[in-house]
Structure formats: C-alpha cells, structure tokens
Amino acid sequence: MSLLMPETGLVFWMLLAFGIVFFILAKFGWPVITGMVEKRSNFINDSVKAAEEANKQLENIKIETEAILAKAQQEQMRILNEASELRNQIIQDAKENALVESQKIIEDAKRQIQIEKEKSLNEMKGQIAELSVDIAEKVIRADLRKENQQSELIDKLLNEITLN
Amino acid sequence: MGKKIAVILLFVCCVFPSGIAWAEKQDTTQDLDVKGIIFDHISDAYEWHITTIGDKHITIPLPIIVYGEINGFKVFLSSQLHHQSSYCGYQLGSEDGKYAGKIVELNAAGEELRPWDFSLTKNAVAIIINCLILLCIILWVSKWYKKNPMTAPKGIRGALEMLIMSIQDDVIKPCVGKDYRKYSPYLLTAFFFIFLNNLMGLIPIFPGGANTTGNIAVTLVLALCTFFAVNIFGTKEYWKEILWPDVPVWMKAIPLMPIIELFGIFTKPFALMIRLFANIMAGHSIVLGLTCLVFITASMGVAVNAGMTFVSVFFTIFMDCLELLVAYIQAYVFTMLSSVFIGLSRVEHHK
User: Fold this and answer.
1) A2 domain-assigned
2) Confidence of residue A159 (pLDDT cuts 50, 70, 90)
C-alpha cells in the first residue's frame, strides 16, 4: 500500500526539479531548437521554390532560344531559296537574251547573205547577158558567112515566130 | 554464423560459473526474500545502496531533512541511522508499524509520529541527477543551434532534433491544435523528462537504477501539471461542454451529465498518473523477478540452476529490450494524451 501513497517530500522535490527544468528549457531550450528548425525548413522550402522558379525561367529561356534559332534557320532557308531563285532567274534571262541575240545575228547574217546573193545574181545576170550577147554575136558572125545559111536561119526564125 | 556461436559461448561462460558459485553459497543460507528484494528496489530509500560485496554494503548516504513537532528541524546524513538506531530523536519506523522504513519520531506515549519529511531520498536525488542530464543535453543542443543557424546538425544532435521534431510535429501539433506553441515547451519537457527517467531507471548501477517514473509521487506531479495545463487555460466552450453539454435537457436538469463530465476532469489525469506509474513499476518488478530466478533455483541442484539461469538471463535481456520500448512508448503516450486533453480544452464554438 505504501507504494500507492505519494510521499510529500518526494512530491516537493519533484515539483521543484521539474519546475526549474521546465522554466529553463521553456526559455532557453525548446523555443531555440524548434524555432531554428522551423526557420531552416522554411528556408529550405523557399529555396526549393526559388530553384523551381529559376528552372522554369531557364526552361522559358530555352524555349525562346529555340524559337529564335528556328526562326533564324527559316530566315536562312528563305534567303537561300531567294538567292537560288534569283540565280535561276538570271541564268534564264541570260539564256533568253543570248537566244534572242543569236537569232538576231543569224537573221542579220541571212539578210546579208540574201542581199549578197541578189547582188551576185544580178551581177551574174548582167555577165551572162553580156556573155550570151558575145556568144550570140560570135555565133552569128561565124554562121552568116554563107548565103544559104543566112536565109535558112531567117526562115527558121520566122517559123519560130509564127509558131509562137 | 561463427559470430553467433561466439556470442552464445560467451553467454554460457558468463552465466554458468556465477550460477554455480551462487548455488554453492546459497546452500548455507536461508530462503531468498524475493518480495523483499523487489520492494526494496521499487520503493524509495533514504540511502543509495549500490552493491554488497561479502558483508560490506556499499551505499551513498543521502541527507535527511525533517521537521517534527517534538524534535524540531533537523538535517543529518542517513549513515547516522546505521551507526545508532536513532539520531536526535528520529528513527526508522518499526517493520510491522504504519510507517515501516520511514523516518518517525516517538511521542510521550511511545507512538510513532510522522514528521514533515523533505529528505533528499534516492528517488529525489535520481530526479535531480536526471534533470541535470536533461538540462545539459538540451542546452548543449540549443547552444549549437544558436551558433550554427541554418545548418542541419549531425550525429547525436541530429538524432535529438529528429526526436524533438517528431514529438512536436506528429504529437503536439495535431493533438493540441492551432495554439500548440504555447503548450509545446511543457509537453516536450514532460516527454523528455519521462523518457530520460525511464531510460535511467533501466541502467542498473549508480546514476541510474532508481525507480523514479515508477513512483507515484513523480507521476502525480506530472499528472497535476497536465491537469492544470488543461483546466487553467480551458476555453469557455470547454467549460460549457462540461457544465451544460449538448444533450437532452432531462439529462442535465438532474445534473447527471455535468457530474460525469466533472468526474472526467479528474479521471483523465488520474489515469495518466496510474498508467505511467504501473507500467514502469511493473517493468522493474518483472526484470527483478526474472533475475531472482537464478537465486531461487540455486538450492535445486546445479543442473536445474544452470538451466534456469540460462532462461533467466535470456528473459531478462528480452524484458530489458521490451522496457526500452516501453520507456519510449510510455513517454509518448503521456505526451500524446496530455496533448489530446489540452486540445480538448481549447475547443472553439462550433455548430
């Protein structure tokens, strides 16, 4: 039974010791520890949040960079395309010009040839006429030495004329 | 595997010779007073008995502080009572009297009277030692925190931080509610005080070994602290729920419910007091009883004694491990229930 009866003396000492411990720890012990731990955990939370934010920003920047890069590439492609088109255009133009020019030259040459041809033909005509007159003169001179032959020719000529 | 065998061999080597040695000795002596040994240990004492070597008792004498009606205020060492049966009119109560083992004084008729006894008994000294240890540990940790803000502690400090924060975050915060900060110093002190005292009680030699938390005076003070923490700071709603609860009017017209509720105010801390006291006292008793098994069976022959010694040591180790668990669990339960009771006293008006 004595086990169940609290002793006054022990209650007194216990109250004293526990009270002092409580007051000292409540002032210098627990608040310092729990406060510091909470502060630290808040700090860690904030840091994690800040890091996340930074990561997000970094991601955005990455996306932006990629967009810029893609745009630049597009621009490059466009410029290249334009340049090649221009080149093709120039070549085409040059080809056409050359064709036109060459045709012109050919036509000129043809015209020249024509003119030359006509000229030479005319000349040839004159010469042929002269030659034929000469030949005819000579023929006539040779054949008309005999009398009968002269009359024969005259007859033949007359015949021909009438026949015509 | 080799390690295991070595451990078992060591165990056997330790256990057998001591058992046999005791068996030889016990043959000549009388029956062992197991009840006496257990009660001696779990009850308080005026001196701190450490061990007995042969016939020599090694004890630490402790101061006795008494104030009696007849003999007045006296302070003396407990060793004075060993040299002579009484000192300045104070003596130990007779074995079959009402105050067996306590300091008494005799009045003119020869009756034993109990003086005001503020002696620093074994338990009182143990509590003071444990309090000093607790203060050293916690202040050591908090000093480090002041010096190294924003750094996570390592080693023992880290373990203590984990323990402190687990009590604060998992017990106090959810149980007390929103103004837990006001109560957490008391609850943390209570937890670590009980935990440390439980652990020190498990250490069998000098600074430990006192059955502090298994003493009803100690648990009474702890329960009273919770009682006051609950009732002094109780909200209006808390008192309304006790005196005029939300039940049909006929149940409170004959004040049936209020009486039950008023009883509840006292039974809650009473249960706290008895729970802690009984658990720790029972733990100490079982460990001691199992240890005594070696000496009880000493007279039954070497074979029985050796076998029982093995059983005893095995179960004692098992019980000590269990007590280690109980030391934490009881401190945890006391803190948690105190938090719950405080939380219930902080109720806000709800619809």
Assistant:
1) no
2) confident
Q: Are B156 and A44 in contact (CB under 8 A)?
A: no
Taking contacts as CB-CB distances below 8 angstroms, the residues of chain A near B149 are 36, 39-40
Tens-digit pLDDT profile for residues A96-154 = 999 999 999 999 999 999 999 999 989 888 888 888 888 877 777 766 667 777 777 77
pLDDT mean over B77-98: 76
With a cut of 70, say whether residue B13 has pLDDT above it: no
| Amino acid identity at B278 | A
User: What are the beta bridge partners of residue B61?
Assistant: B47
A141 touches chain B (CB under 8 A): no
pTM: 0.75
Tokens 């209006």 map to which residue?
Answer: B236
Query: Is residue A10 a contact partner of residue B212, using CB atoms and an 8 Å limit?
Result: no
Domain extent, residue A90, equals 9-163
Residue A72 lies in a domain: yes
Q: At residue B29, does pLDDT exceed 60?
A: no
Average pLDDT, chain A: 88
What distances in angstroms separate CA B93 from CA B34, B124, B218, one per listed residue?
22, 20, 23
Percentage, residues of chain A above pLDDT 70: 95
Is residue A89 in a domain? yes
B24 pLDDT higher than 60 = no
Helix axes B302-345, B216-232, angle to 10 degrees: 10
Per-residue pLDDT at B14 exceeds 60: no
In B, which residues are within 8 Å of A42 by CB distance?
Answer: none
- How much is the pLDDT for A61? 95
A4 falls within a domain: no
Distance from CA of B148 to the nearest CA of A (A): 9
Q: Which two structure tokens, joined as six digits, stand for A5?
A: 């009866």
Q: Which of B222, B226, B204, B196 is CA-nearest to residue B131? A: B196
Decide if B193 and A31 are in contact by the 8 Å CB cutoff.
no
B residues 113-152 lying closer than 8 A (beta carbon) to A: 116-121, 123-124, 127-128, 131, 134-135, 138-139, 141-142, 145-146, 149-152
Q: Residue B199: which residues within 8 A CB-CB, separation 6 or more?
A: B208, B324, B327
The answer to whether B183 touches B228, Cβ cutoff 8 Å, is: no
Residue B18 predicted with pLDDT over 70? no
Domain count for chain A:
1
**How far apart, in Å, are the Cα atoms of A56 and each of A47, A50, A64, A74, A76?**
14, 10, 12, 27, 30
Mapped onto helix, strand or coil, the DSSP state of residue B116 is strand
Neighbours of B70 (CB within 10 A): 12
Structural domain boundaries in chain B: 59-117, 122-345
